[in-house]
From TrEMBL:
Family: Belongs to the peptidase M1 family.
The protein's required cofactors: Zn(2+)
Segment forming the signal sequence: 1-18
Subcellular location field: Cell membrane
Major place of residence: membrane
Domain ERAP1-like C-terminal: 601-903
Entry keyword annotation includes Transmembrane: no
InterPro entries: Aminopeptidase_N-like_N, Aminopeptidase_N-like_N_sf, ERAP1-like_C_dom, M1_APN-typ, Peptidase_M1, Peptidase_M1_aminopeptidases, Peptidase_M1_dom, Peptidase_M4/M1_CTD_sf
Official protein name in the record: Aminopeptidase
Enzyme Commission code(s) on record: 3.4.11.-
First-tier enzyme category under EC: hydrolase
Keyword Signal: yes
Co-factor binding comment: Binds 1 zinc ion per subunit.
Length: 950
């Protein structure tokens, strides 16, 4: 699933019954087929018996003695009429590993009507079943269990079927089995059923053994109106008329049997959606967006082919088709259901007239993320959610690397270090972080908390480090071993370690005395990561290399954590950044000799492949800085981005003098490539947020203008040429955003002129420069431009464009326009077809757009906070107060914050008000802090020096 962290269901199948054909799915299955082999069943028993469960999890987990192997599912819905209830029947096929009387089944919100327990003689699923009893049961809502009690002892030598009839309501929170809606071309609201079962919400649709390791096959039938169609993981086997009083013009769609898979991967869609198709792939969406599906289909085709070739294990080994679906309401973002990937509309639909290069990048990379899950996640699956990183780490790595394999000209893997590694380094430096392998319980929210930057970004970065150590060819071999040895099974880190050992057995990879397990677990079982301290002794030509856990807010030299660290060294005399030759730091500190001249820099961690930060002695830092100022291209672009990111965070943690970092930033005056500017952007934002509204802001503006002046002059910010690369467009947006934000006159004039000309011709700005043009073109614009952009928003049904325009309208600095805009979010006189998420985004956009927006929001909340509570809830009001506090930097702004808090009174919790005051106090104290004084002193000195040069 895609978070930064997160699909299912479709249409148009009734006319194409049997569109796909998979011979084996039509054949009968025997029990050995369904539970792999008897040997594997015994191995499964041993593995389950050996599993040590977290005591906090145990009350919510299926007992080890239950072994499911098949489900027969039947659902009936009247969703075409907006009916929010459904009926279901489920046959749960299982065995037990020791004599028992009690069977635990997961259930959430299901109303049981009838239950029966059968024995299944022989090994034929379609054989005659023998009714044993109608078992008694109790329901434990807190643990989400139905606990069945049998009068007879169930024994390991037999197979059983638990038959359950039930009814339930569709959910409305985008989780489990839920209802979604859209407006068709006639402005009529249409309903559909979608599913999102990860992590433990399959139990909302049918009673089940809802754990990832409890794999089984599924036979699904859905009864629905003939005007709708149903789509699921596997192809349709047949569609037949449904005959029962009260259900005229209904049909039953029957699907082919699935491979063995986890319950959370089951997916279906019941809707009036349309689709386009090529080969064994289809893309589904609402009928009025079908013309936006061609790009996703083409991307899916090339991505699947690239992954087939790279892994050497064809997708069609177990699945004959792969569908994608754009769901109007899909909180998860995207989901990898086997054979039926689901996406939020803005992450799949592509309209060349309005879709930006960023959205196209998201579409390609997220398709790659979900497609690689068909192997890492579906074919093999994390044994329990504590090992979620085994699914999501691989998906995060191949989100970029797989997209690169499919479309190398787009240079998607160039984004990995910036989007993944540096993001993860920031998140994992906090005191409250966790190890990659980790569990704190088995409830819905305990598990949901694991879908975080550690499971995704850190895991992806660490796996990329492992890949760098092994080399890509050995990594490919490892992947093949890992997938083949665990085919259709659940895995834990031991299986990955075994595959890494097997693939690298003929290599001299690790240091002497270090096992693959020790290396891997030093990164997966421990919290945080190290900073490597590189200290040169220029008199003795020695280096002291040490490791220490890095925290973002303090220096701790007595933390006992140690890692087995792969590192490499490059120096100014032989600046080869491409060859990744590895050495190892296996203890706290080592002394190394070097023949690098005293006037030449050394650098550690080529291409930022290792997951750690690096600090140097001050002299080496200035050797690097001087070299960059003399020739910025003398250091690899990844490492220039690394130097900025590492130095900033080291300075903030008091491991490096902040002035050294600021001197490093000066080299950006000549930098013209995307990676370094992307690394610099959040740093500039950090200083902007603390200096805006203070007497020092003018010096800050001057400093950033000086850094931007050269690169800005190389860019055409109001036009797009055909030969611009994807990365050039990223660079252009990053640089022009900051140029306009610091009120560069040329930038503001160009964006305003382009927007005005666009309004004159009643057109749209080119999508690849639209974000900056719409946002900053509205600064100082007339009402005409604002109304025009607003009208485009109202009439657009492209979710990605709507999001961009919502954010852009918040950039206006006209208070009357902004206040009217806020009214639309809470159902004022101007009615807009916002989704609930869009209403929240409008309010956040106004606060994020400008200080004028913050002031307008304060006045708006003083007058209408009760409307915000009514339409958007307490959480939204609390969040808005926190956002306003974060943008409070001076006494006047503090007075306005206090006025707001006083007006809200008891409408917000005291803790929220206290937190807001504390945030504002920290902001206002920053300029007089040690860090603030160093920064403001540097900025003043820099400005004075620049003035003297002129």
């Amino acid at each position: 699933m895609t978070p930064w962290n997160v699909l299912v269901l479709f249409c148009a199948i009734s006319a194409v019954s049997g569109w796909y054909s998979h011979p084996r799915a039509r054949d009968g299955y025997s029990l050995p087929d369904l539970i792999s082999t008897d040997e594997k069943f015994e191995a499964y028993q041993q593995r389950q018996d050996a599993a040590v469960r977290n005591p906090i999890e145990a009350p919510y987990r299926i007992p080890n003695y239950i072994v499911p192997f098949h489900y027969g599912l039947w659902l009936r819905t009247g969703i075409h009429e907006g009916n929010l209830t459904f009926d279901g029947r489920a046959d749960l096929y299982f065995r037990v590993t020791n004599p028992v009387r009690t069977i635990y089944v997961h259930s959430r919100g299901l109303n049981l009507i009838n239950t029966e327990l059968y024995m299944l003689p022989g090994d034929d699923l379609d054989g005659d079943r023998v009714l044993l009893e109608r078992p008694r049961y109790t329901i434990n809502q807190n643990r989400e269990f139905i606990i069945f009690s049998s009068q007879r002892i169930l024994v390991p030598t037999e197979s059983y079927i638990l038959h359950v009839e039930y009814s339930a309501e569709l959910r409305t929170d985008d989780d489990g089995i839920y209802v979604s809606t859209y407006m068709n071309e006639n402005r009529v609201r249409r309903h559909l059923i979608a599913t999102q079962f990860q992590a433990i919400s399959a139990r909302t649709a049918f009673p089940c053994f809802d754990e990832p390791a409890l794999k089984a096959t599924f036979n699904l039938q859905i009864v629905h109106a003939e005007e709708y169609s149903a789509v699921s993981n596997t192809p349709v086997m047949e569609i037949e008329d449904y005959e029962e009083d009260g259900f005229q013009d209904y049909v039953t769609t029957k699907f082919e049997r699935t491979p063995r898979m986890s319950p959370y991967l089951l997916a279906f869609l019941v809707s009036d959606f349309k689709y386009i198709a090529e080969g064994n792939q289809r893309v589904f969406t609402r009928p009025n967006a079908i013309n936006q599906t061609e790009y996703a289909l083409a991307s899916g085709l090339r991505t699947l082919q690239a992954m087939d070739e790279y892994l050497g294990i064809p997708y069609t080994t177990h699945m004959s088709k792969l569908d994608q679906a754009a769901i109007p309401d899909f909180d998860a973002g995207a989901m990898e259901n086997w054979g039926l990937c689901k996406y939020r509309e803005s992450l799949l639909l592509f309209d060349p007239a309005v879709t930006t290069y960023r959205t196209r990048t998201w579409i390609d990379t997220i398709i790659s993320h979900e497609y690689i899950h068909q192997w890492f996640g579906n074919k093999i699956t994390n044994e329990w959610w504590s090992y979620l990183w085994l699914n999501e780490g691989f998906a995060t790595l191949y989100e970029y690397y797989g997209a690169h394999l499919a479309a190398p000209e787009m240079e998607y893997f160039e984004l990995f270090t910036l989007d993944v590694t540096q993001w993860a380094l920031d998140a994992d430096s906090r005191e409250g972080t966790r190890p990659m392998s980790f569990s704190n319980g088995a409830t819905f929210y305990d598990i949901w908390d694991l879908f975080d930057s550690i499971a995704y970004s850190k895991a992806g970065a660490v796996l990329n480090m492992f890949r760098g150590v092994l080399g890509d060819e050995v990594w490919r071999l490892m992947s093949s071993v890992y997938l083949s040895d665990n085919e259709l099974e659940a895995v834990n880190p031991n299986d990955l370690i075994a595959a890494m050992e097997e693939a690298s057995k003929d290599m001299d990879t690790l240091p002497e005395g270090v096992s693959m397990r020790e290396f891997v677990e030093s990164w997966t079982e421990q919290t945080g990561y190290p900073v490597l301290e590189v200290r040169r002794n220029y008199r003795t030509d020695e280096i002291i290399l040490s490791q220490d856990r890095f925290f973002n807010n303090k220096v701790v030299n007595n933390d006992p954590t140690e890692w087995i660290v792969p590192y490499n060294v490059v120096n100014q005399s032989a600046a080869d950044f491409e060859f990744l030759n590895w050495d190892w730091l296996t203890e706290r500190a080592v002394r190394l000799s070097t023949n690098v001249p005293d006037d030449r820099w050394i650098m550690v961690n080529k291409l930022q492949t290792g997951f750690y930060r690096v600090n140097y002695d001050v002299q080496n830092w200035y050797l690097i800085i001087d070299a960059l100022i003399a020739n910025w291209a003398s250091v690899h672009r990844y490492n220039r981005a690394q130097l900025l990111d590492d130095a900033f965070h080291l300075a903030r943690a008091n491991r490096l003098d902040m002035e050294v970092f600021l001197d490093l930033m000066v080299y950006l005056q000549n930098e013209v490539e995307y990676p370094a500017w992307t690394a610099a952007s959040p740093i500039i934002s950090y200083f902007y947020n603390r200096l805006r509204g203070t007497p020092h802001y003018e010096h800050f503006q001057h400093f950033i203008y000086s850094l931007l002046e050269h690169v800005y002059g190389t860019l055409s910010i109001d036009s797009v040429s055909e030969d611009e690369t994807n990365l050039h467009k990223f660079l252009k947006q990053t640089v022009s955003t900051w140029a306009c934000r610091i009120e560069n006159e040329d930038c503001l004039n160009r964006t305003h002129t382009l927007l005005s000309e666009t309004v004159d011709r009643r057109g749209l700005v080119h999508p690849d420069i639209s974000a900056v043009t719409y946002c900053f073109g509205l600064r100082g614009s007339t009402e005409r431009e604002f109304v025009y952009v607003y009208d485009v928003l109202k009439t657009s049904d492209n979710q990605a464009l709507r999001t961009l325009l919502i954010d852009s309208l918040g950039c206006s600095d006209d208070r009357t326009e902004l206040r009217a805009y806020l009214y639309t979010a809470v159902g004022g006189e101007i009615q807009v077809n916002y989704t609930p998420a869009e209403r929240r985004r409008v309010l956040n956009a106004v606060i994020a757009g400008s200080r004028e927006g913050v002031d307008v929001m304060i006045d708006f909340l003083v007058d209408l906070y009760d409307y915000v509570l009514l339409y958007l809830g307490q959480g939204m009001l609390n969040s808005l107060v926190g956002s306003i506090a974060s943008k409070t930097n001076n006494e006047e702004e503090l007075e306005r914050l206090e006025h707001l808090l006083g007006s809200l009174g008891s409408s917000i919790p005291p803790a929220v008000a206290n937190s807001a005051r504390a945030t504002a106090a920290r902001n206002m104290a920053w300029t007089s802090s040690r860090e603030g004084l160093i920064v403001t002193s540097f900025l003043e000195s820099f400005s004075n020096n620049e003035q003297r040069k002129k």
